[in-house]
Design a protein that fits this description.
Helix content is 64%, strand content 0%. With 281 residues, it is mainly alpha-helical. The chain has 2 domains: 77 residues; 177 residues, Serine Threonine Protein Phosphatase 5, Tetratricopeptide repeat (Alpha Horseshoe). The longest helix is centred in the first third of the chain and has 30 residues.
């Protein structure tokens, strides 16, 4: 009872609004985003099956069962396409709403990082109890929305992304603070979507250039994550591990050509680019 009274005493209206907003976004917008991702995957799978069945029919392998399967798949594809359009029209077309949601998650990121002393590397070896008590979906939702908006033209245009970049660099290779490999994989996906040749956003054009935390720790943490990351307990664990390492390799290849990286090519962390054994300090 004493603890409850203390919590009630130190909590206030702004604090309650913050946590209620996080919960509402988790149950509302982020649930819709997860549903959209599921629908998109199912639609892609059904379209592949439909294309394969049509190819069999075109080759003269038609049968009543095949025709029935094609008809069924066509109906499923049409229904899933309608669902996808509905979700996209409500979520992806409202850039102003997405930017407001990003602003909230930027606040959440800054608050979370503030609990461990701010953006500084290396991270403290002992993490505070307050950070350990943060619900995992806080950071997961922030990364999910960032990954989604990074693939939408003009959605994060003009939005400051430096804090998200700092957060990804700081935590993606830290097993002490974040243990979920899928969350770390999403961080890599976000960085990959910001690569200049893959992004049309002006806000990401110079994001990796002249950024001190990038210069000092991005390559180091990507290499560490590439070695450490493992996906266990899933029937797709080997594919997931290969997939994230492939994305890390693409990121490292891109960073090799970024102008400011030219100054760091003699770094021990870059020896692997030159075909030499990596010599981390």
């Amino acid at each position: 009872m004493a603890v409850e009274r203390q919590i009630k005493r130190i909590s206030h209206f702004i604090c309650e609004c913050f946590f209620m907003t996080a919960r509402v976004l988790n149950l509302g917008v982020m649930k819709a985003v997860a549903d959209l991702k599921h629908i998109s995957r199912e639609l892609a799978r059904c379209e592949d099956d439909l294309e394969a069945n049509n190819a069999i029919r075109d080759q003269g392998g038609s049968s009543p069962q095949l025709e029935q399967d094609i008809t069924c798949l066509e109906k499923i594809v049409a229904a899933l396409s309608q669902e996808q359009f509905c979700y996209e029209s409500q979520i992806l077309r409202d850039s102003a709403f997405l930017q407001r949601a990003l602003s909230f998650y930027r606040l959440m990121i800054l608050w979370s990082v503030g609990l461990v002393g701010g953006f500084k590397m290396p991270s403290p070896s002992e993490w505070p109890m307050e950070f350990s008590c943060i619900p995992e979906h806080f950071l997961d939702d922030a990364t999910d929305l960032l990954a989604l908006t990074s693939r939408i033209p003009k959605a994060p245009e003009g939005f400051p992304l430096d804090d998200f970049l700092n957060f990804n660099i700081m935590f993606m290779a830290s097993s002490s603070y974040i243990k979920n490999p899928y969350l770390k994989a999403k961080m890599v996906e976000v960085l990959k979507s910001w690569m200049l040749q893959r992004s049309s956003l002006k806000s990401t054009a110079s994001l990796f250039e002249g950024h001190q935390l990038c210069l000092d720790y991005l390559v180091k943490n990507l290499l560490k994550l590439c070695v450490d990351i493992e996906f266990n307990g899933s029937h797709t664990q080997f594919f997931d591990t290969f997939n994230i390492r492939h994305k890390i390799a693409e990121l490292l290849e891109y960073l090799w050509d970024v102008p400011w990286r030219q100054m760091a090519k003699d770094s021990p962390w870059c020896s692997c680019f030159r075909g030499e054994p990596c010599r981390p300090q």
